[in-house]
Amino acid sequence: AALQALKRKKRYEKQLSQIDGTLSTIEFQREALENSHTNTEVLKNMGYAAKAMKKVHENMDLNKIDDLMQDITEQQDVAQEISDAISNRAAFGDEFDEDELMAELEELEQEELNKGMRDVRLPSVPSTSLPSRPGKLPASHFTFVMIKPCLKRVEDEDEMKQLASWAS
């Protein structure tokens, strides 16, 4: 009985596989029919569009279109000339020589600079005489004077390295 049940199970599995294949084929055919119908509708509509375009273009002449476009371009040029003429302000004797204006500006700048220089106050000269030999400076001053240029040189070298890395 178990052997018979196993054979029956195998037969059912084979039938199930066949039915599944048949359903897949039917589904594929259904999709193909739908695509065919869609393609037919698209082609029909494209035909209508082609006929409509042909009918619209029947009364159009390419030479007439070129002439029309040239007329439009000419009229746009005329409109631009009119617009330019209107937008340029009328020169009623108020034209100035650019070189004269630049010379006057430089003269005014020089006057302003001279005025600023008159107001500069210089420090007074010391009234005591300086010693003939320099005196002994404290060690801390000497160290600071020697270290400061070294620090400046290190900063300059770092900036040059950054500049070189940026440039490359």
Short key terms for the protein model shown above:
mainly alpha; 0% strand; flat; transport; coiled coil; endosome; CHM4C protein; Snf7_fam
Query: Which secondary-structure class do the elements indicate?
Result: mainly alpha
Distance between the termini: 88 Å
SSE arrangement, N to C: HHHH
Instruction: Give the overall shape, derived from the CA principal axes.
Output: flat
- What is the radius of gyration? 49 Å
What is the residue-averaged pLDDT? Answer: 82
Total helical segments: 4
Helix share of residues?
A: over 70%
Q: Flag low-confidence runs.
A: 141-146
| Biggest sheet character | none
Total beta strands: 0
Estimated share of beta-strand residues: under 5%
Question: Strands, helices and their partners?
Answer:
Blueprint (H helix, E strand, L loop, with lengths): L1 H56 L4 H26 L10 H21 L20 H29 L1
Summarize the structure.
With 168 residues, the chain is mostly helical. Among the domains are: 59 residues; 57 residues, no CATH class. Helix content is 79%, strand content 0%.
